[in-house]
Structures are given as C-alpha cells and as structure tokens.
C-alpha cells in the first residue's frame, strides 16, 4: 500500500509518517520502480503502536525503547516496567502542577464576581499587583514577552 492508504488506515498524517521514518521509529519501506513508498502490515502494526504511545503522551525516546523491546521479544521487560513507572511519575507531577495552577486561577476568579468597570476588576488589579511584586530581570522579562512564551509564577 502507498503512504496515503497507510495514513488513512492509521488516522495519521502523511508528514507524520515520514517524520517517524526519519526518526527511525518506522522501518524504511520498500519502493516501487516509480520510487513510491510501499508499506505492509508490519508498518500498520508498528505505526498503530507508535500512535497509541503518543496518545499516552510518551516521548519519542521512550517509544524508541519500547519498540526495541518489541523487536526483541525474548528480552526481559524490566526496563519497560521502569520506563512506564517513570512516565507515570512524570504524569503525576504534571497533574500536581496543573492542580496548583487551577487553585491559583480559582482564587483569582473569586476576586471579581460581578460585571463592572475594568478599573474596579479585582482580577485585573490583583494581576497588576502581582506583576509589580515579581519584577523579573530584564533578560527574563524579554523572554516572557515573546509570542508563545509560558511561565508559572510562585
């Protein structure tokens, strides 16, 4: 099958499939005389496993490790267990961080319970006070102002 068919079967973008090939996660497919990639069932299976791992927010290096074990079925899977335990701990840390963020946002939200003028908005006033208290250094401040930059305070 060609790359478009593989993409449809696995619900994966063509460019993502090519990326996984470049990263060595998918084996290089055979090619037709016209140089089209030809994929088989092994590509479907492997790509499905990669997609499942990505849906679990696993990093490419972790997926690479899992694929190495999958390709060596007689190996002891102790390292797989450690990898998953580490990922579980990472997810728990992220959840704790997000819970703390949620708590901060709820606390901030309680500062303004009615529609009013912006100058009287407790949320805006508190954000302004916090901004004056934190006073980042100029280099850090310029990094904060870049599009897409995200930070956590406190």
Q: Can you give a write-up of this model?
A:
The structure is a single chain. This protein has 154 residues and is mainly α. The protein has seven helices and two strands, in the order H-H-E-E-H-H-H-H-H. A two-stranded antiparallel ribbon has the order 1-2. The N and C termini lie far apart (53 Å).
- The count of DSSP E runs of length 2 or more, i.e. the number of strands, is 2
Question: Cα distance, first to last residue?
Answer: 53 Å
Strand order of the largest sheet: 1-2
Order of helices and strands: HHEEHHHHH
- What is the gyration radius calculated from CA atoms? 24 Å
% residues in beta strands: under 5%
Mean pLDDT: 88
Provide a short characterization of the protein structure.
This protein has seven helices and two strands; from the N terminus they run H-H-E-E-H-H-H-H-H. The chain is mostly helical and 154 residues long. Strands 1-2 form a two-stranded antiparallel ribbon.
Provide the fold topology:
Elements: H1 3-10, H2 14-22, E1 30-31, E2 37-38, H3 41-55, H4 60-70, H5 78-109, H6 122-134, H7 138-144
Name the features.
154 residues; mainly alpha; 2 strands; 3% strand; disordered C terminus
């Amino acid at each position: 099958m060609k790359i478009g068919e593989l993409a449809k079967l696995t619900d994966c973008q063509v460019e993502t499939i090519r990326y996984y090939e470049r990263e060595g996660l998918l084996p290089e497919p055979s090619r037709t005389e016209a140089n089209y990639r030809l994929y088989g069932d092994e590509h479907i299976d492997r790509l499905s496993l990669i997609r499942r791992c990505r849906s679990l927010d696993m990093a490419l290096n972790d997926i690479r490790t899992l694929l190495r074990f999958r390709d060596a079925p007689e190996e002891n899977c102790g390292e797989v267990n450690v990898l998953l335990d580490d990922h579980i701990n990472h997810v728990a840390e992220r959840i704790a961080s997000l819970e703390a963020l949620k708590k901060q946002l709820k606390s901030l939200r309680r500062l303004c319970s009615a529609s009013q003028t912006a100058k009287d908005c407790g949320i805006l006033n508190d954000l302004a006070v916090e901004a004056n208290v934190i006073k980042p250094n100029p280099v850090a401040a310029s990094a904060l102002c870049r599009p897409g930059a995200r930070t956590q305070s406190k």
